[in-house]
Amino acid sequence: MINIVICEDDHLFREVLRKYLEIILKEITNQFKITEFNCGEDLIENYSDNTDIFFLDIEMEKLTGMDVARKIREVNCNSEIIFTTALAEYIQEGYEVRAYRYLIKPIEFNELKKHVCSCIGDMYKKYEHNLIIHNKGIVYKIQIDNITYIEVMDKDITIHTKDNYYEVKNSLSKLEKDLKEYNCKFYRCHKSYLVNMKHIQYIKKNTVFIDNREIPVSRHKIKDFKLNLADVLGDIIC
């Protein structure tokens, strides 16, 4: 079952978006549900944790789409968020809520179909991709998309996720190589840190912030790091 939520205060656009999504989803599965809200307050009041994709209009009154996205991310780090907007000025804020895409209105059917299919495909892959770690007779199965960063501490590795952490005996270089095989957006920003670029909140000088934790970026890597970060951001702008 694919669960989609549309939060849009423009009634006509919401109808068109729903119609387009129904056509697209019927080509993928007959098990889907689309729920509509005309304001952010109603969505938050009736929030469901089993939503796969949120379509949020940024320019809503009172609670904007960005406000709603922030509230969603307080309790949910797995659902995908796609913003619909007539303006591109809010794109920089997407780091904070890890938006999957920004779709600029008016949205053409073929353009929407391309990104919805890509999102669902990535969603399926995400749930299939797990990092398997063996440590002291214990096998850890960690969902890769939930990993925020990995650090070396006193020759031990600590893998940080959104809601937990795992201390293991391993090599940061080996984990970096393993994660590359999954084509994940991880970057070795420092000899002691490997960060998931999708979880970066913002960058300030030679420091990145993930879950309000400060992580250093080596001076000789900062230029390449910013280029890679721009590529990740570029992937979500359409």
Automatic annotation (TrEMBL):
Residues 3-120 form the Response regulatory domain. It comes from the Bacteria. Keywords: Phosphoprotein. Residues 139-231 form the HTH LytTR-type domain. One of its GO terms (molecular function) is phosphorelay response regulator activity. Coiled coil: none annotated. Pfam families: LytTR, Response_reg. The modification 4-aspartylphosphate is found at D57. InterPro entries: CheY-like_superfamily, LytR-like, LytTR_DNA-bd_dom, Sig_transdc_resp-reg_receiver. May play the central regulatory role in sporulation. It may be an element of the effector pathway responsible for the activation of sporulation genes in response to nutritional stress. Spo0A may act in concert with spo0H (a sigma factor) to control the expression of some genes that are critical to the sporulation process. This is Stage 0 sporulation protein A homolog. It comes from Paraclostridium sordellii. The gene is yehT_2.
